[in-house]
Amino acid sequence: MQTRLLVRGAVCAVLVLALAVWSTAQLSGNYTIDPNGSGPSNYTTFAAASAALAAGVSGPVVFQVASTTFQEAVTFNPVTGTSAANTITFVATGNPAVIDANGAQDGLVLNSTCSHFLFDNFVIKGFTRYGLSLAGASATRATFCTFRNLMVDAPATTSTSVYAVYCYYNNDCIFEDCVFAGGGRVFYTQQINRNFMRRCEFDGKGQASQLASLWNSNDSDNLYENCFYHDCGPSGYAMYIDYSQYGNMIWHNTFLVNTSQAAVRLGSLSSWSRANSFRNNIIVNTGTGGCIWYGASATALDCNDPDYNCYWAPNGNVIELQNGTTFTKGTLAQWLAFFTSPAGQAMIPAGGGTTWDNNSIEANPGLVSMTAPYDIHLTGGSPCINAGTKVYVAGPWISYNASYVVATDGEGDPRDATPDIGADEVVVSIVGSGSGLPGTSIAFALLAAADAGLPYQMGSSFGNGPIPIDTRTIGLSLDSVLVLSIGGTLPGIFQNYAGLLDAQGKATASFNIPNIPTLKGIRIYTAFVTLSPAAPSGVSNISNSFLFTIQ
After folding, report:
1. Cα of 107 vs its chain's centroid, Å
2. Where is average pLDDT lowest: 167-171, 517-521, 545-549?
3. Cα(2)–Cα(187) distance, rounded to whole angstroms?
4. CB atoms closer than 10 angstroms to residue 29
5. Nearest to 236 by CA among 267, 208, 202
6. How far is CA 42 from the centre of its chain?
């Protein structure tokens, strides 16, 4: 009897051990996070998924997250086994998944040494302190994490203890196509390195003191590219760069604020430190403040690279300098003249590689709309078109990749060889009933299919509205820009002209847009006249139904 009990006890022990091993198995493969889901590969909460990850991973892991609201604050601790190959992905397909912290301090927290996490298509809200927190110390930091299509919605506040995003000591992280909104400081960084911020929006909700806070010491080699910063508080900043910043690249951004301060503050108690590049940016301040405030004495600023920017401060001074001697505030022209003086020359020590705004412009950038709802596309007459550069000027202490270029704009359109300033690149393409790059043929179709076999004329007007057609002479009238007629004597851009409508009422002529940068933003109105000897006026049909926009 005793022997039997011992055997049973051994069997039970083996069973418990097996269950323990199964429950702590490392994850690999595909899983779901769905409150209404079931099965061994589904987790009903993020907390359950986080607990399962405590055992580590043995391969790449993907969590398909339900497009619903999760009423929980989410925290992840380091996971053993993660690497560039063994990533942990959380993705919501369709509508975003919502993490509602429901009044907790922080929404989504990645603790020290979390690495190779990826979050795609999420909304984070309902927190009282940090929406996304990447916190660590010099030796324990979040690394190689990616955040895409993330909306972090902080409360509108002036409190500098509330951030949409808190980046502290994290390295090599990527933020793409994200919206960071609210908080006294919307996006706060300290001691971060090699992080990329691409095509992101920073919204201060009209109260934030700083939209992007590059704060305190030793941020280095970070990239801010094709981002849109707007609506700081009435005395706030769009970007506040303080203390020691090294090798940061701030290119092709659009800043649009209404504040009594400068839109962008570069440097403070020490200097805006070494080898930072601030190029191809549009900075607009419609308040009483200026665009750029250099917060140091002239001799403390060294070896940075601010150039090819567009400044517009209709109610304030474009550029200000702390503790300047012959220059403290004024226009861009006065700022440039300052460099001809000994005090200005002292800002660039021997060996410095910078032109200091030599190619920048002071002008209205010609945005489609500078009031909400904003439209930061450039209009056709914008001075920012083809006014930028792809060249990064290397100087002493340079650490950023000097060969790097911004290949696309905020919408993914390719940058020209001579790029536009700002987050938008005006690409010569046609939007209407057809699309194409310069030189691409576009076929036109008339509405009147019954006119098959009749001859027609066609012409186009650039920019000035529909073409007036004189039915008495069956001619196409000139406007102040340009009219091109297939039957006229002006230079033509219509090709493959057949002169007769087919059975579907289509014209066989094609329309070739010339590659003229000044046409960007222009509308093209195309008119057709169908000729019929049997009609009293000789005109059977007139159509102005074709409208194209070059953008």
Report:
1. 23
2. 517-521
3. 69
4. 11
5. 208
6. 34
For tokens 């001799």, the residue is 299
Strand 185-190 relative to strand 163-168: parallel, antiparallel, unpaired?
Answer: parallel
Using the CB atoms, write b or e for 425-459: b if 16+ within 10 Å: bbbbbbeeebeeebeeebebbbebeebeebbbbbb
Q: Which of 11-15, 23-27, 367-371, 491-495 has the highest mean pLDDT?
A: 367-371
Per residue in 412-459, pLDDT (tens digit) is 988 988 899 999 998 655 555 444 445 555 666 555 556 677 777 766
| Confidence (pLDDT) at 340 | 76
Over residues 180-185, the mean pLDDT reads 98
What end-to-end distance do the CA atoms of the chain give, in Å?
90
Separation of alpha carbons 413 and 378, rounded Å: 13
Closest CA to 400 of 292, 302, 274: 274
| Residue 324 vs residues 243, 346, 398: alpha-carbon distances, Å | 19, 12, 26
Q: Which of 271, 267, 291, 272 is nearest to 281 (CA)?
A: 291
Quick check: 268 and 419 in contact, CB under 8 A? Answer: no
CB 232 within 8 A of CB 209: yes
Grouping H, G, I as helix, E, B as strand and the rest as coil, residue 45 is coil
Domain ranges of the chain: 217-427, 430-550
pLDDT score, position 502: 75
Helix (H) or strand (E) holding 6: helix 2-23
* Alpha-carbon gap, residue 359 to 29, rounded angstroms: 52
Average pLDDT over residues 309-330: 89
Q: How far is CA 204 from the centre of its chain?
A: 16
Q: How many whole angstroms separate alpha carbon 486 and alpha carbon 388?
A: 37
Those residues with Cβ within 8 angstroms of residue 272's Cβ, 6 or more apart along the chain or in another chain: 241, 245, 266, 294, 295, 296, 301, 304
Q: How far is CA 100 from CA 122, 123, 135, 251, 551, in A?
A: 10, 8, 20, 33, 39
- What's the sign of the alpha-carbon dihedral 474, 454, 467, 490? negative
Q: Which residue has the higher pLDDT, 107 or 348?
A: 107
Residue 11's pLDDT band (cuts 50, 70, 90) = very low
Give me the chain's average pLDDT, please: 81
What the block records as the tokens of 533 is: 């000897």
Q: Which helix (H) or strand (E) covers residue 23, if one does? A: helix 2-23
pLDDT reported for residue 257: 98
Q: Count CA within 13 A, CB hemisphere, residue 527.
A: 24
536: confidence class by pLDDT, cuts 50, 70, 90 = low
What is the rounded distance in angstroms from the CA atom of residue 165 to the CA atom of residue 153?
Answer: 10
- Is 197:188 a contact under the CB 8 Å cutoff? no
Question: Are 50 and 74 in contact, with CB atoms under 8 Å apart?
Answer: yes
CA distance 176 to 227: 10
Q: How far is CA 234 from CA 200, 209, 257, 267, 479, in A?
A: 22, 8, 9, 20, 45
